[in-house]
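Could someone model pyridoxal-5'-phosphate with this protein?
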Amino acid sequence: MKIPVSKPLFSGKELEYVTDCMKTGWVSSGGKYIEEFENGFSKYLNAKHSITACNGTAALHLALLSLGIEKGDEVILPNFTMIASANSIVYTGAKPVFVDVEPRTWNIDVDKIEEKITKDTKAIMAVHIFGHPCDMDPILKIANEHGISVVEDAAESIGAEYKGKIVGCLGDVGAFSFYGNKIITTGEGGMVVTNNEETAERIKAFKNHWFDKDRTFIHKNIGFNYRMTNIQAAIGLAQLENIEKHIKIKRDIVQTYNNLLKEVDGVRTPIEEKWAKSVFWMYAVLIQDSFGKDKDVVRKELEKLGVETRLLFAPMNSQPSFAFLGDSNNYPVSEELYKRGFYLPSGLQIDDKEIQYVADSIKNIRLS
Ligand SMILES: Cc1ncc(COP(=O)(O)O)c(C=O)c1O
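Reply:
Sure, complex below.
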């Protein structure tokens, strides 16, 4: 038995749409699927503007650029996130400022945001981590009081809901990822969303070398090539048509795992706040002392049994690449997650038998 952490699911019209791209010759960033995917995404999110990008990191970069974030600015974000969140801030020349996360959902600790706000703070990046939405009301309130923007990094949380509202459009601008292990995939890919017309125009301009609509090959600003291809959008559209199915699969995986693991002492399983609908990007656990073995031992044993796992993200402040920030503050929750956590196989193609095998393996490791 070999169970990978994740495998994408293509159960719709992906092949049909991609074949159409080949047949019609629309393989670069022109073609009908770009528009259909963007329009479909806007409809799904109830957003005014959705703009495709070549990946989630580029989408985040575009989101920040569209708000005018630049050198000398500071952007607040959680210390527990994937490196792309922080890197996108560094790309603009701004400084990432870290805040620890809270121990239940692993999202930014809203009570610790204000102490990090300075005169240079321009935005808060709310990262909806592992499929679970951030507590957005206090974040939006703080941002409003201080006159700063809110960027949502919803890379892992497509379809998640905060108090009944889908994430991505709750702040000023949101970014999504369609990497192969995400809720829907385009291979590599991303999307930027906003309800603001002017922000949308800036995103489109930055995404495509700031081409001038009226004067071809005259460029007022330095832009990027962050375009998605029609082929990626074709896959994305087919995936979007099945998004509810994907989210249901993710939520069912959690139910099954939680039932099987609830009696196992020392395994902390994922939670969902009352006000939240999580899409449970991956099934992540923490190994507590009462398990009797540390997480590295558990992972090694699982590997021997053919069960692939992945560590949780290492704290941003301790990244060698961010040594230049000189941030030696303590972030106990982020550190704890790195010390104790990993995620189990929980991709869209896993079946109940495999989940049972993984859970049994964990129980046996505990007893061995
Ligand atoms: C929280 C978070 N932000 C941003 C990204 C970047 O997305 P991409 O890999 O598509 O560039 C990822 C994931 O991969 C992520 O998990």
